[in-house]
């Protein structure tokens, strides 16, 4: 499945738009990660525990979005975006969303340059 943050995919024509697809996951804080994050606020630096958690969340949300697109018969998802929100104390949602599309025949020429 092709995913892109752009509205078009180079070398492909979009034959139809199937609708918006999304995938999300909600994660809770981990006490051990909170302790390490608290220490990092004193000395500075990356909080790798949270970095890993966010990467896992993005991957899971993306996988769920792609599964929804496949169920609709899509060939690709364009205009992919990510957003986060707090849903409860200590819990955050990671949401991936985009437009599911069917691709037509590959275009023989590249699109004209943007002026």
What would your notes on this structure say?
This protein is of the alpha+beta class. It has a single domain, classed as 2-Layer Sandwich (Translation Initiation Factor IF3), CATH 3.30.110. It is 32% helix and 42% strand. The chain has 2 helices and 4 strands. A hairpin with a 2-residue loop joins strand 3 and strand 4.
Brief descriptors of the model:
115 residues, alpha+beta, Translation Initiation Factor IF3, four-stranded mixed beta sheet, 4 strands, 32% helix
Nutshell version of this structure?
With 115 residues, this protein is α+β, with helices and mostly antiparallel strands.
Q: Helices, strands, pairings?
A:
Blueprint: E1 2-3, E2 12-28, H1 31-43, H2 48-71, E3 76-88, E4 91-106
Measure the end-to-end span: 31 Å
Count of all domains = 1
- Average pLDDT for all residues: 85
Percentage of helical residues? Answer: 25-40%
Q: What's the CATH topology label? A: Translation Initiation Factor IF3
Q: Low-confidence spans: pLDDT under 50, at least 5 residues?
A: none
What's the CATH architecture? 2-Layer Sandwich
CATH hierarchy class name: Alpha Beta
So what's the overall shape? elongated
Percentage of residues in strands: 35-45%
SSE topology string: EEHHEE
Which class best fits the helix and strand makeup?
alpha+beta
**CATH fourth-tier homologous superfamily:** Hypothetical protein apc22750. Chain B
Strands in their spatial order, largest beta sheet: 1-3-4-2
Biggest pleated-sheet summary:
4 strands, mixed
SS field, number of helical segments: 2
Strand segment count: 4
Radius of gyration: 18 Å
């Amino acid at each position: 499945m092709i995913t892109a943050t752009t509205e078009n995919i180079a070398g492909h024509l979009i034959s139809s738009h199937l609708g918006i697809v999304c995938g999300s996951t909600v994660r809770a804080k981990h006490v051990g990660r909170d302790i390490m994050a608290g220490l990092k606020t004193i000395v500075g630096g990356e909080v790798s525990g949270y970095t890993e958690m966010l990467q896992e969340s993005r991957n899971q949300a993306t996988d769920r979005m792609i599964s929804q697109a496949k169920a609709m018969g899509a060939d690709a998802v364009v205009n992919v975006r990510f957003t986060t929100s707090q849903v409860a104390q200590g819990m955050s949602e990671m949401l991936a969303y985009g437009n599911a599309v069917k691709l037509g025949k590959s275009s023989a020429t590249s699109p004209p340059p943007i002026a």
